[in-house]
C-alpha cells in the first residue's frame, strides 16, 4: 500500500491527478478498495462519450443551446466535432449511421505510455486497436467499445 500511496502522491505532484482524484484514490485505499487503484490501467475519469448523429450541425446546436457546450475541436475529414464545458471534453459527435447510438466511451488513464498500455492490454487478453490520434480502442466482454485515452 505504501508504494501505491507514493505513486499517487507523485502523480499529484506532477499534475497527473487533480486534488479531487487524489482524495478519491486515497479514500478507496482507506476503505479497502485497493483493486481499483492497483489495476494495470488505473482510470482517472470518464474522458468523453462518442455519439453517432445524422446531422452534425443540428446536434452541435442542440449541445450548445441546451447544455452550453462549446466546440473544443473539429476533425472535418472524419466528420467529428468534440464539445467541452469549462475546458473538459464532454462529448464527441460523429456524423455516421446509425444515428443516436453511443459509439464508444473513453476512459482517461493519464500517466502511462503507449508501450506499457499495449503490454498491459495484451496481458489482459485484449487486442488494442490504435485510435485516430488518441489512445487505443478495446472491446469489452459484452461488445462495448472502450477508448483508452491519455496515452
Portion in strands:
25-35%
Helix-strand makeup class: alpha+beta
Query: What are the segments in which pLDDT stays under 50 over at least 5 consecutive residues?
Result: none
CATH architecture tag of the largest domain = Roll
Strand order of the largest sheet: 2-3-4-1-5-8-7-6
Rg: 17 Å
First-residue to last-residue Cα separation: 25 Å
| Helix segment tally | 5
The residue fraction in helices comes out at 25-40%
Provide the CATH superfamily of the largest domain: 2,3-Dihydroxybiphenyl 1,2-Dioxygenase, domain 1
The total count of strands amounts to 8
Main sheet characteristics: 8 strands, mixed
Mean pLDDT: 82
CATH class of the largest domain: Alpha Beta
Compressed to H and E, one letter per element, the order equals HHHEHEEEEHEEE
Q: What number of domains? A: 2
Shape: globular
CATH topology of the largest domain: 2,3-Dihydroxybiphenyl 1,2-Dioxygenase, domain 1
Short description:
With 151 residues, this protein is an alpha+beta fold. 33% of the residues lie in helices and 31% in strands.
